[in-house]
């Protein structure tokens, strides 16, 4: 074992070194994951909004 704190990217089948201590992934994958995360969070927001609207509609229908 080396004394250096070189980390390897956590991405499956990727063995690139991670430059930053704070990052779990290599530069390429951290960028990919950030993009994915933003996409997922956007989709989640829309889905939650849609679910809330549907839920409200459902409640209103039940009351009518
Ligand atoms: Zn990687």
UniProtKB/TrEMBL annotation:
The lineage of its organism: Bacteria, Bacillati, Bacillota, Bacilli, Lactobacillales. This is Uncharacterized protein. It comes from the Bacteria.
């Amino acid at each position: 074992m080396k004394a250096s704190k070189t980390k390897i990217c956590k991405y499956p089948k990727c063995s690139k070194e991670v430059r930053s201590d704070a990052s779990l992934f290599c530069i390429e994958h951290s960028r990919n994951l950030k993009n994915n995360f933003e996409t997922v969070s956007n989709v989640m927001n829309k889905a939650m909004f849609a679910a809330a609207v549907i839920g409200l509609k459902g409640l209103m229908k039940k009351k009518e």
